[in-house]
TrEMBL record:
GO cellular component: cytosol
SUPFAM superfamilies per record: Flavoproteins
PANTHER family in the record: CHROMATE REDUCTASE, NAD(P)H-DEPENDENT FMN REDUCTASE LOT6
GO molecular function, one term: oxidoreductase activity
Domain NADPH-dependent FMN reductase-like: 1-129
Pfam families the UniProt entry points to: FMN_red
Protein's organism: Janthinobacterium violaceinigrum
Taxonomy, superkingdom: Bacteria
Protein name according to UniProt: NAD(P)H-dependent oxidoreductase
Length: 171
């Protein structure tokens, strides 16, 4: 099962990216977690541009279409979805990549409820199929954990493995 994982932060030390790396490291067979690295390469969304002529946009679309499941982990900035994540989603509105795509939302800061609510609304509007049972919030903010630390923490490890089991059952 191929999962395309996208972190909504461009920060090198992003907790969301660390979470995705921890998940990739913990995922048992048959999971193949692919972490998307091109969020910062997408141009600012402009509907006047031909998305099919932009390699970064078509690359993201093709990666989403090739995945069995999509996993999004985005920080919250000023009570909203991060700009890079929103930009990527805007580029995908005009194509079929999200239609009935099983999708999981991850939250690295349980207090960040506004961005999660906005992401839910956006991806539902785009016709993705949220796997609600697999959407989780983990208390990583202020933990000082990197990907290895997240994977080594017994409670976080259990939550991640349970989330992956839900994906297997409900996707």
């Amino acid at each position: 099962m191929t999962i395309l994982a996208i972190a909504g932060s461009l920060r090198a030390a992003s907790l969301n990216t660390a979470l995705l790396h921890a998940i990739a490291g913990l995922a048992p067979a048959p999971f193949d977690i692919r972490i998307y690295q091109g969020l910062g390469d997408l141009p600012l969304f402009n509907p006047d541009l031909d998305a099919d002529s932009l390699p970064s946009v078509t690359g993201l679309r093709d990666a989403i279409l090739a995945a069995d499941v999509l996993m999004l982990a985005s920080p919250e900035y000023a009570h909203g979805v991060s700009g890079p994540m929103k930009n990527a989603l805007d580029w995908m509105v005009g194509n079929e990549s999200f239609i009935d795509k099983p999708l999981v939302l991850l939250n690295a800061s349980p207090r960040a409820t506004h961005a999660q609510a906005a992401l839910r609304e956006t991806v539902r509007t785009m016709s993705a199929r949220l796997i609600d049972e697999a959407c989780i919030s983990l208390p990583l903010l202020g933990s000082g954990l990197d990907a290895d630390g997240i994977a080594a923490d017994p409670a976080l490890r259990r939550a991640i493995l349970a989330m992956l089991q839900c994906i297997r059952l409900f996707s």
